[in-house]
Amino acid sequence: MKNVAVIGGGAAGFFAAIHAAQNGNEVTIFEKGNSLLNKVRISGGGRCNVTHACFEVNDLVKFYPRGSKELISAFYRFNTNHTIDWFESRGVELKTEGDGRMFPVSDLSQTIIDCLLKEAKRNGVKIKTQCGVNAVVLVDSKLILKFANDAEKEFDSVIVTSGGYPSSKNYDWLRDLGINIVEPVPSLFTFNIPNSPLKGLEGVSVSDTLITVEDSKFKYNGPLLITHWGISGPAVLKTSAFAARFIHDLNYNFTASINFIPSFSAIELEELFNQQKKNHPSKKVFSKLFLQLPGRLWERLCAAAGITEGCQYANISKQQMLSLIKNILSYELKVKGKTTFKEEFVTCGGIDLKEVDMKTMESKKIPGLFFAGEVLNIDGVTGGFNFQAAWTTGFIAGSSV
Q1: How sure is the predictor about 344, in pLDDT bands with cuts at 50, 70 and 90?
Q2: Whole-prediction pTM value?
Q3: Following CA atoms 389, 187, 168, 334 in sequence, which dihedral angle do they give, to the nearest 10 degrees?
Q4: Domain CATH number, residue 223
Q5: Residue 36 has pLDDT above 90, yes or no
Q6: Number of domains the chain contains
Q7: How far is 231 from 238, CA to CA, in rounded Å?
Q8: DSSP state of 138
Q9: Could you give the percent of the chain with pLDDT greater than 70?
Q10: Among 180, 335, 313, 322, CA closest to 257
Protein backbone atom coordinates (compact mmCIF):
# COMPACT_ATOMS: atom_id res chain seq x y z
CA MET A 1 0.00 0.00 0.00
CA LYS A 2 1.26 3.45 -0.95
CA ASN A 3 0.66 6.78 0.72
CA VAL A 4 -0.69 8.98 -2.09
CA ALA A 5 -1.30 12.73 -2.18
CA VAL A 6 -3.64 14.36 -4.69
CA ILE A 7 -3.12 18.09 -5.10
CA GLY A 8 -6.40 19.71 -6.12
CA GLY A 9 -10.03 18.93 -5.28
CA GLY A 10 -11.56 19.23 -8.73
CA ALA A 11 -12.97 16.71 -11.19
CA ALA A 12 -9.61 15.19 -12.16
CA GLY A 13 -8.46 15.17 -8.54
CA PHE A 14 -11.46 13.26 -7.25
CA PHE A 15 -11.41 10.79 -10.12
CA ALA A 16 -7.70 10.15 -9.63
CA ALA A 17 -8.11 9.81 -5.85
CA ILE A 18 -11.02 7.39 -6.13
CA HIS A 19 -9.18 5.09 -8.53
CA ALA A 20 -5.94 5.26 -6.56
CA ALA A 21 -7.84 4.30 -3.41
CA GLN A 22 -9.61 1.44 -5.18
CA ASN A 23 -6.17 -0.10 -5.70
CA GLY A 24 -5.67 -0.25 -1.96
CA ASN A 25 -3.64 2.92 -1.49
CA GLU A 26 -4.04 5.43 1.32
CA VAL A 27 -5.12 8.61 -0.48
CA THR A 28 -5.50 12.21 0.66
CA ILE A 29 -6.83 15.11 -1.42
CA PHE A 30 -5.33 18.50 -0.58
CA GLU A 31 -7.41 21.47 -1.73
CA LYS A 32 -6.15 25.01 -1.12
CA GLY A 33 -9.65 26.51 -1.11
CA ASN A 34 -12.48 25.92 1.31
CA SER A 35 -14.78 24.26 -1.25
CA LEU A 36 -14.50 21.28 -3.57
CA LEU A 37 -15.42 20.55 -7.20
CA ASN A 38 -16.10 24.21 -7.99
CA LYS A 39 -16.01 23.82 -11.79
CA VAL A 40 -18.33 20.84 -11.57
CA ARG A 41 -20.72 22.99 -9.56
CA ILE A 42 -20.91 25.88 -12.05
CA SER A 43 -20.46 23.99 -15.33
CA GLY A 44 -23.34 24.11 -17.77
CA GLY A 45 -25.15 26.81 -15.86
CA GLY A 46 -25.22 24.68 -12.72
CA ARG A 47 -26.22 21.47 -14.53
CA CYS A 48 -22.69 20.04 -15.14
CA ASN A 49 -21.87 19.16 -18.73
CA VAL A 50 -20.35 15.78 -17.78
CA THR A 51 -19.18 14.72 -21.24
CA HIS A 52 -20.15 14.77 -24.92
CA ALA A 53 -21.96 12.10 -26.93
CA CYS A 54 -18.98 11.43 -29.18
CA PHE A 55 -18.21 7.72 -29.01
CA GLU A 56 -15.47 7.14 -31.58
CA VAL A 57 -11.96 7.93 -30.34
CA ASN A 58 -10.78 9.22 -33.73
CA ASP A 59 -13.68 11.69 -33.75
CA LEU A 60 -13.38 12.59 -30.07
CA VAL A 61 -9.76 13.75 -30.29
CA LYS A 62 -10.66 16.29 -32.99
CA PHE A 63 -12.27 18.45 -30.30
CA TYR A 64 -8.96 19.09 -28.52
CA PRO A 65 -6.81 21.96 -29.85
CA ARG A 66 -4.00 20.81 -27.54
CA GLY A 67 -3.38 17.14 -26.74
CA SER A 68 -5.34 15.54 -29.56
CA LYS A 69 -2.59 13.12 -30.64
CA GLU A 70 -1.50 12.29 -27.11
CA LEU A 71 -5.07 11.55 -26.02
CA ILE A 72 -5.68 8.84 -28.62
CA SER A 73 -4.22 6.02 -26.54
CA ALA A 74 -5.68 7.50 -23.35
CA PHE A 75 -9.20 7.57 -24.79
CA TYR A 76 -8.95 3.94 -25.84
CA ARG A 77 -8.50 3.18 -22.13
CA PHE A 78 -11.21 5.51 -20.81
CA ASN A 79 -13.60 7.44 -23.07
CA THR A 80 -17.17 8.69 -23.23
CA ASN A 81 -18.62 5.18 -23.03
CA HIS A 82 -16.64 4.48 -19.87
CA THR A 83 -17.69 7.80 -18.32
CA ILE A 84 -21.37 7.06 -18.92
CA ASP A 85 -21.01 3.52 -17.53
CA TRP A 86 -19.09 4.76 -14.49
CA PHE A 87 -21.71 7.29 -13.43
CA GLU A 88 -24.73 5.18 -14.34
CA SER A 89 -23.36 2.19 -12.40
CA ARG A 90 -23.41 4.51 -9.39
CA GLY A 91 -26.99 5.59 -9.90
CA VAL A 92 -26.40 8.75 -11.96
CA GLU A 93 -28.25 8.56 -15.27
CA LEU A 94 -27.09 10.90 -18.03
CA LYS A 95 -29.08 12.39 -20.90
CA THR A 96 -27.99 13.73 -24.29
CA GLU A 97 -29.18 17.09 -25.61
CA GLY A 98 -29.60 18.00 -29.27
CA ASP A 99 -26.09 19.44 -29.58
CA GLY A 100 -24.46 16.33 -28.08
CA ARG A 101 -23.81 17.69 -24.59
CA MET A 102 -24.52 15.23 -21.80
CA PHE A 103 -25.96 16.17 -18.41
CA PRO A 104 -27.33 14.31 -15.41
CA VAL A 105 -31.06 13.65 -15.84
CA SER A 106 -31.59 15.70 -12.68
CA ASP A 107 -30.15 18.79 -14.44
CA LEU A 108 -28.27 19.47 -11.21
CA SER A 109 -24.49 19.57 -10.88
CA GLN A 110 -24.98 18.62 -7.23
CA THR A 111 -25.90 15.13 -8.45
CA ILE A 112 -22.38 14.70 -9.87
CA ILE A 113 -20.77 16.28 -6.81
CA ASP A 114 -22.69 13.99 -4.44
CA CYS A 115 -21.69 10.95 -6.50
CA LEU A 116 -17.99 11.83 -6.41
CA LEU A 117 -18.05 12.69 -2.69
CA LYS A 118 -19.90 9.47 -1.87
CA GLU A 119 -17.49 7.36 -3.93
CA ALA A 120 -14.46 9.06 -2.37
CA LYS A 121 -15.84 8.40 1.13
CA ARG A 122 -16.69 4.79 0.27
CA ASN A 123 -13.10 4.20 -0.80
CA GLY A 124 -11.61 5.86 2.25
CA VAL A 125 -10.22 8.97 0.55
CA LYS A 126 -9.26 11.65 3.06
CA ILE A 127 -10.02 15.26 2.14
CA LYS A 128 -8.19 18.31 3.47
CA THR A 129 -9.54 21.73 2.48
CA GLN A 130 -7.80 25.07 3.04
CA CYS A 131 -4.58 23.12 2.75
CA GLY A 132 -2.52 24.65 -0.04
CA VAL A 133 0.66 23.02 -1.29
CA ASN A 134 3.53 25.45 -1.86
CA ALA A 135 6.12 23.01 -3.14
CA VAL A 136 6.92 19.40 -3.94
CA VAL A 137 10.47 18.28 -3.14
CA LEU A 138 12.15 15.01 -4.12
CA VAL A 139 14.33 13.54 -1.34
CA ASP A 140 15.78 10.02 -1.62
CA SER A 141 13.04 8.86 -4.02
CA LYS A 142 10.38 10.18 -1.65
CA LEU A 143 8.16 13.13 -2.49
CA ILE A 144 7.74 15.72 0.24
CA LEU A 145 4.87 18.19 0.16
CA LYS A 146 5.46 21.59 1.73
CA PHE A 147 2.27 23.31 2.81
CA ALA A 148 1.33 26.94 3.18
CA ASN A 149 1.51 26.66 6.98
CA ASP A 150 5.17 25.52 6.75
CA ALA A 151 4.24 21.91 7.56
CA GLU A 152 5.79 19.06 5.53
CA LYS A 153 4.64 15.52 4.79
CA GLU A 154 6.24 12.63 2.91
CA PHE A 155 4.40 10.59 0.26
CA ASP A 156 5.21 7.63 -1.95
CA SER A 157 3.33 9.14 -4.90
CA VAL A 158 1.82 12.51 -5.73
CA ILE A 159 -0.86 13.24 -8.32
CA VAL A 160 -0.98 16.89 -9.39
CA THR A 161 -4.50 17.93 -10.43
CA SER A 162 -4.28 21.60 -9.54
CA GLY A 163 -6.00 22.80 -12.72
CA GLY A 164 -4.96 25.38 -15.28
CA TYR A 165 -3.48 28.67 -14.13
CA PRO A 166 -4.07 31.95 -15.99
CA SER A 167 -0.69 33.31 -14.87
CA SER A 168 2.67 31.80 -15.76
CA LYS A 169 4.13 32.46 -12.29
CA ASN A 170 1.56 30.09 -10.76
CA TYR A 171 3.47 27.22 -12.35
CA ASP A 172 6.78 28.14 -10.67
CA TRP A 173 6.41 25.44 -8.02
CA LEU A 174 6.34 22.88 -10.84
CA ARG A 175 9.19 24.55 -12.72
CA ASP A 176 11.25 24.20 -9.53
CA LEU A 177 11.04 20.44 -10.06
CA GLY A 178 12.59 20.84 -13.50
CA ILE A 179 9.30 20.36 -15.31
CA ASN A 180 8.85 22.24 -18.58
CA ILE A 181 5.78 24.45 -18.75
CA VAL A 182 4.13 25.61 -21.97
CA GLU A 183 3.30 29.27 -21.33
CA PRO A 184 -0.41 29.64 -20.49
CA VAL A 185 -2.80 31.81 -22.47
CA PRO A 186 -6.61 31.92 -22.28
CA SER A 187 -8.78 29.58 -24.33
CA LEU A 188 -12.57 29.50 -24.77
CA PHE A 189 -13.29 33.21 -24.72
CA THR A 190 -15.73 35.51 -26.48
CA PHE A 191 -14.79 38.35 -28.82
CA ASN A 192 -15.11 41.94 -27.64
CA ILE A 193 -16.13 44.37 -30.38
CA PRO A 194 -16.26 48.02 -29.21
CA ASN A 195 -18.65 50.13 -31.27
CA SER A 196 -19.95 46.98 -32.93
CA PRO A 197 -22.15 47.54 -35.99
CA LEU A 198 -24.34 44.80 -34.52
CA LYS A 199 -25.16 46.78 -31.37
CA GLY A 200 -28.87 46.67 -30.63
CA LEU A 201 -29.11 43.02 -31.68
CA GLU A 202 -28.06 41.63 -28.30
CA GLY A 203 -29.54 38.18 -27.73
CA VAL A 204 -29.96 37.44 -31.44
CA SER A 205 -28.55 34.04 -32.41
CA VAL A 206 -27.86 32.25 -35.69
CA SER A 207 -27.93 28.45 -35.73
CA ASP A 208 -25.09 27.86 -38.20
CA THR A 209 -22.27 30.26 -39.07
CA LEU A 210 -18.65 30.09 -40.15
CA ILE A 211 -16.17 32.25 -38.22
CA THR A 212 -12.81 33.07 -39.83
CA VAL A 213 -9.85 34.81 -38.23
CA GLU A 214 -8.46 37.06 -40.96
CA ASP A 215 -4.99 36.20 -42.35
CA SER A 216 -4.98 32.78 -40.72
CA LYS A 217 -6.00 29.16 -41.27
CA PHE A 218 -8.53 29.30 -38.43
CA LYS A 219 -12.18 28.96 -39.47
CA TYR A 220 -14.89 27.10 -37.58
CA ASN A 221 -18.61 26.38 -37.88
CA GLY A 222 -21.30 26.56 -35.24
CA PRO A 223 -24.07 28.65 -33.67
CA LEU A 224 -23.33 32.33 -32.99
CA LEU A 225 -24.77 34.67 -30.36
CA ILE A 226 -24.65 38.46 -30.49
CA THR A 227 -23.92 39.91 -27.05
CA HIS A 228 -23.66 43.29 -25.35
CA TRP A 229 -19.87 43.19 -25.70
CA GLY A 230 -19.51 41.52 -29.11
CA ILE A 231 -20.09 37.96 -30.27
CA SER A 232 -20.17 34.60 -28.50
CA GLY A 233 -21.65 31.14 -28.95
CA PRO A 234 -20.09 27.77 -29.87
CA ALA A 235 -18.62 29.02 -33.18
CA VAL A 236 -16.73 31.83 -31.44
CA LEU A 237 -15.63 29.67 -28.51
CA LYS A 238 -14.37 26.95 -30.84
CA THR A 239 -12.46 29.54 -32.87
CA SER A 240 -10.94 31.06 -29.73
CA ALA A 241 -9.85 27.62 -28.54
CA PHE A 242 -8.09 26.50 -31.71
CA ALA A 243 -6.66 29.95 -32.43
CA ALA A 244 -5.87 30.76 -28.77
CA ARG A 245 -2.13 31.29 -29.13
CA PHE A 246 -2.40 32.96 -32.54
CA ILE A 247 -4.95 35.47 -31.23
CA HIS A 248 -2.93 36.02 -28.06
CA ASP A 249 0.09 36.94 -30.18
CA LEU A 250 -2.09 39.55 -31.92
CA ASN A 251 -2.90 41.01 -28.48
CA TYR A 252 -6.55 40.21 -29.19
CA ASN A 253 -6.73 42.82 -31.94
CA PHE A 254 -7.78 41.25 -35.22
CA THR A 255 -10.56 41.04 -37.80
CA ALA A 256 -13.15 38.27 -37.59
CA SER A 257 -15.26 37.45 -40.61
CA ILE A 258 -18.72 35.90 -40.22
CA ASN A 259 -20.43 33.82 -42.89
CA PHE A 260 -24.06 33.82 -41.79
CA ILE A 261 -25.19 31.26 -44.38
CA PRO A 262 -22.23 28.95 -45.11
CA SER A 263 -24.43 26.58 -47.11
CA PHE A 264 -24.61 29.15 -49.96
CA SER A 265 -21.92 30.38 -52.34
CA ALA A 266 -21.73 33.92 -53.71
CA ILE A 267 -22.79 32.67 -57.14
CA GLU A 268 -25.82 30.89 -55.69
CA LEU A 269 -26.87 33.98 -53.73
CA GLU A 270 -26.55 36.24 -56.78
CA GLU A 271 -28.67 33.83 -58.78
CA LEU A 272 -31.26 33.74 -55.99
CA PHE A 273 -31.49 37.54 -55.82
CA ASN A 274 -31.84 37.77 -59.59
CA GLN A 275 -34.70 35.27 -59.42
CA GLN A 276 -36.34 37.41 -56.74
CA LYS A 277 -36.05 40.48 -58.97
CA LYS A 278 -37.61 38.57 -61.83
CA ASN A 279 -40.35 36.66 -60.01
CA HIS A 280 -41.16 38.98 -57.10
CA PRO A 281 -40.19 42.50 -58.22
CA SER A 282 -42.59 44.27 -55.85
CA LYS A 283 -41.49 42.34 -52.78
CA LYS A 284 -39.53 44.36 -50.23
CA VAL A 285 -35.93 43.31 -49.72
CA PHE A 286 -36.36 43.82 -45.96
CA SER A 287 -38.78 40.85 -45.98
CA LYS A 288 -36.69 38.01 -44.60
CA LEU A 289 -35.41 35.75 -47.37
CA PHE A 290 -33.70 33.06 -45.28
CA LEU A 291 -35.51 31.17 -42.54
CA GLN A 292 -32.29 30.55 -40.59
CA LEU A 293 -31.59 34.28 -40.21
CA PRO A 294 -33.44 36.32 -37.55
CA GLY A 295 -35.44 39.17 -39.05
CA ARG A 296 -33.65 41.94 -37.14
CA LEU A 297 -30.25 40.67 -38.29
CA TRP A 298 -31.43 40.45 -41.91
CA GLU A 299 -32.64 44.04 -41.77
CA ARG A 300 -29.27 45.14 -40.34
CA LEU A 301 -27.39 43.36 -43.15
CA CYS A 302 -29.64 44.99 -45.74
CA ALA A 303 -29.21 48.44 -44.21
CA ALA A 304 -25.42 47.98 -44.16
CA ALA A 305 -25.64 47.39 -47.91
CA GLY A 306 -27.43 50.72 -48.39
CA ILE A 307 -30.86 49.17 -48.88
CA THR A 308 -33.68 51.20 -47.35
CA GLU A 309 -36.70 49.74 -45.58
CA GLY A 310 -39.14 50.28 -48.46
CA CYS A 311 -36.81 49.17 -51.24
CA GLN A 312 -38.28 46.53 -53.57
CA TYR A 313 -36.33 43.84 -55.41
CA ALA A 314 -37.14 45.59 -58.69
CA ASN A 315 -35.21 48.65 -57.50
CA ILE A 316 -32.18 47.02 -55.88
CA SER A 317 -29.00 47.99 -57.70
CA LYS A 318 -26.24 45.61 -58.75
CA GLN A 319 -23.88 47.26 -56.24
CA GLN A 320 -26.39 46.93 -53.39
CA MET A 321 -26.94 43.28 -54.23
CA LEU A 322 -23.20 42.53 -54.26
CA SER A 323 -22.75 44.44 -51.02
CA LEU A 324 -25.56 42.46 -49.38
CA ILE A 325 -24.01 39.18 -50.55
CA LYS A 326 -20.69 40.25 -49.04
CA ASN A 327 -22.42 41.11 -45.75
CA ILE A 328 -24.05 37.69 -45.69
CA LEU A 329 -20.94 35.66 -46.53
CA SER A 330 -18.11 37.70 -45.02
CA TYR A 331 -19.34 40.25 -42.49
CA GLU A 332 -16.22 41.78 -40.96
CA LEU A 333 -15.92 42.80 -37.32
CA LYS A 334 -12.92 44.44 -35.65
CA VAL A 335 -12.17 42.52 -32.47
CA LYS A 336 -10.42 44.37 -29.66
CA GLY A 337 -10.16 42.22 -26.56
CA LYS A 338 -11.78 39.16 -25.07
CA THR A 339 -14.09 38.07 -22.28
CA THR A 340 -13.33 34.88 -20.37
CA PHE A 341 -15.67 32.94 -18.13
CA LYS A 342 -14.08 33.77 -14.78
CA GLU A 343 -14.36 30.64 -12.62
CA GLU A 344 -14.85 28.51 -15.74
CA PHE A 345 -11.71 29.73 -17.49
CA VAL A 346 -9.81 27.22 -19.61
CA THR A 347 -6.09 27.52 -20.28
CA CYS A 348 -4.08 26.81 -23.40
CA GLY A 349 -0.76 25.75 -21.89
CA GLY A 350 0.50 23.93 -18.81
CA ILE A 351 2.73 20.93 -18.30
CA ASP A 352 4.46 19.99 -21.54
CA LEU A 353 3.07 16.62 -22.65
CA LYS A 354 6.56 15.57 -23.70
CA GLU A 355 7.27 15.40 -19.95
CA VAL A 356 4.52 12.84 -19.35
CA ASP A 357 4.14 9.12 -20.03
CA MET A 358 0.58 9.15 -21.39
CA LYS A 359 0.18 5.44 -20.63
CA THR A 360 0.42 6.16 -16.90
CA MET A 361 0.33 9.98 -16.62
CA GLU A 362 3.61 9.75 -14.69
CA SER A 363 6.41 12.26 -15.03
CA LYS A 364 9.25 11.00 -17.21
CA LYS A 365 11.71 12.84 -14.97
CA ILE A 366 10.38 12.18 -11.48
CA PRO A 367 9.16 8.68 -10.57
CA GLY A 368 6.05 8.72 -8.43
CA LEU A 369 4.86 12.11 -9.68
CA PHE A 370 1.70 11.99 -11.78
CA PHE A 371 -0.49 14.58 -13.50
CA ALA A 372 -4.13 14.81 -14.55
CA GLY A 373 -6.64 17.40 -15.73
CA GLU A 374 -6.14 20.95 -16.89
CA VAL A 375 -2.70 21.35 -15.30
CA LEU A 376 -1.56 19.49 -18.43
CA ASN A 377 -1.24 21.21 -21.80
CA ILE A 378 -4.56 19.67 -22.83
CA ASP A 379 -7.75 21.56 -23.50
CA GLY A 380 -10.94 20.93 -25.40
CA VAL A 381 -13.65 23.04 -26.94
CA THR A 382 -16.86 23.75 -25.08
CA GLY A 383 -19.40 20.96 -24.75
CA GLY A 384 -18.14 18.56 -22.07
CA PHE A 385 -14.76 17.79 -23.64
CA ASN A 386 -12.66 19.28 -20.86
CA PHE A 387 -14.46 17.18 -18.27
CA GLN A 388 -13.95 14.09 -20.40
CA ALA A 389 -10.19 14.78 -20.47
CA ALA A 390 -10.31 15.19 -16.68
CA TRP A 391 -12.09 11.84 -16.17
CA THR A 392 -9.72 10.11 -18.58
CA THR A 393 -6.42 11.44 -17.26
CA GLY A 394 -7.64 11.16 -13.66
CA PHE A 395 -8.59 7.52 -14.21
CA ILE A 396 -5.22 6.68 -15.77
CA ALA A 397 -3.17 8.50 -13.12
CA GLY A 398 -5.13 7.02 -10.23
CA SER A 399 -5.06 3.51 -11.69
CA SER A 400 -1.31 3.73 -12.37
CA VAL A 401 -0.14 4.77 -8.90
Answers
A1: low
A2: 0.93
A3: 170
A4: 2.40.30.10
A5: yes
A6: 3
A7: 12
A8: E
A9: 99
A10: 335
